[in-house]
Amino acid sequence: MKTFATMLGAAAVFLVSGSAALSARTDLVVGVVLEPPHLDPTAGAAAAIDEIVYANVFEGLTRIGPSGEVEPALAESWKVSEDGLTYTFKLREGVTFHDGTTFEAEDVKFSLDRARAEDSTNAQKVLFSAIESVEAVDPTTVRITLGHPQGALPYNLGWGDAVIVAPESADANKEKPVGTGPFKFDNWAKGSSVTISKYADYWGEPVALEKAEFRFIPDAAAAVPALLSGDVHTFPNLQAGDALPQIEADPRFEVVIGATEGETILATNNGKAPFDNLMVRQAIAHALDRDEIILGASAGNGVPIGSHFSPANAAYIDLTDTYPHNVEKAKALLAEAGYPDGFSATLKLPPPPYAREGGEIVASQLREIGIELEIIPVEWAQWLEQVFTNKDYDLTIVSHTEPNDINIYAREGYYFNYDNPAFDAVMEELGATSDPAKRKELFGTAQRILAEDAVNGFLFQLPKTGVWDAKLEGMWENTPVQANDLTKVRWVE
């Protein structure tokens, strides 16, 4: 009897300890480089916004999955008319916003009409340009009528810029976002972090995490210690530099080098002399040594590009040899353009290491052909105001992380100040084309025009250096959209 009691006690101890061991943690600290200017993805161009709220707090009719595929979200299904002009979306039932208000068709109409309105501040209004009308047929049905066929509409509606917001809370979303996602907004400690927590009344599959904190760590030198100490559990895009081999060798972490949609470019003010001169831009293109830039700015992991297009896209064309690295050719072009002794200009660099470190290399390379650059470091908010909005710059370095965003070169008033009617015509035809083969052909034509015009210095596709605790699963390996989707993330023992 004594032996049985002893065994029973031991079994009880085992069950208690075993249960504790199997109880995985439910909190997460995510390290991100940039603090967003606000938290409304429908009213800003900064990728840092979507990196926190996309799929976590806000949802659209559709969503983009981890492999770039279009998936149902707030719309459970949709039908397209034979002429391609009418899309009818069947909405999910039982969906509520985080403030308790009910999601229904009128919210979709409000959101899409707001995004495409004349006074809209949506950074991607072009996504909605084909829409002629949005009709709430009944509480769970929305009909979208187009002015011309747009095969990419379901994909476009999966962008962060197309998430659905409620009229009751839309105006406050910059500071206190209210969406329909599996996480609700908790707190924004300015300069430090944004915290979200599990939304108990979520319509879909509940998330495993109870709380997630996005912690802002712009200094690459501080990121690695934060990871090694356990203060931060994951950096979806770690700027590790020379420390990456050390992390890769540490069994506590998983390191995955994935792909992004981030075309890293030496953005050029085409509307300002001397950059309005094609030969000057061609000279700059010849002066750039991509291999050296990639080695210094992305630890050698970037993929060279010759136009504004992702190598992961099936329509990609390798145009890196359009202007091969050739210092003497660059000098000759500058002389022919009227600048035999070169000239001086400014290079405004936002905080990411690929920009700051890459900028030093670019300045050194352009110095070889007589172009002296004054490097001006700017914070992200300054970059958005001075460069993106006011076009007050000569050159800058930035990664454009929006998917399939080659159409930005056709936008009137865009910060490149590029104007080419031939390119605009290609984009117009592309927008009205749904045939996959024809779209691929048009994408190729568009890439060639940009490459030959040397609109910008096309450098490399930004790699996604994902690092996370080895006990985490569900992190995205690639970044088909600018997001840190935590909906499938969980701790495993």
Describe the structure in your own words.
By secondary structure, this protein is α+β, with helices and mostly antiparallel strands. It has helices at residues 2-22, 47-53, 105-116, 153-156, 220-229, 244-248, 278-287, 290-297, 327-336, 353-367, 380-389, 421-431, 436-453; strands spanning 27-32, 62-64, 70-72, 75-80, 86-91, 131-138, 141-146, 183-189, 193-198, 211-216, 234-235, 253-268, 303-304, 343-349, 371-377, 395-400, 457-469, 472-473, 490-491. The radius of gyration is 25 Å and the shape is globular.
In terms of topology, how is this protein built?
Layout: H1 2-22, E1 27-32, H2 47-53, E2 62-64, E3 70-72, E4 75-80, E5 86-91, H3 105-116, E6 131-138, E7 141-146, H4 153-156, E8 183-189, E9 193-198, E10 211-216, H5 220-229, E11 234-235, H6 244-248, E12 253-268, H7 278-287, H8 290-297, E13 303-304, H9 327-336, E14 343-349, H10 353-367, E15 371-377, H11 380-389, E16 395-400, H12 421-431, H13 436-453, E17 457-469, E18 472-473, E19 490-491
Parallel strand pairs: 1-10, 14-15, 14-16
Antiparallel strand pairs: 2-3, 4-5, 5-7, 6-7, 8-9, 9-10, 11-17, 12-16, 12-17, 13-17, 18-19
Helix pairs in contact: 7-9, 8-10, 12-13
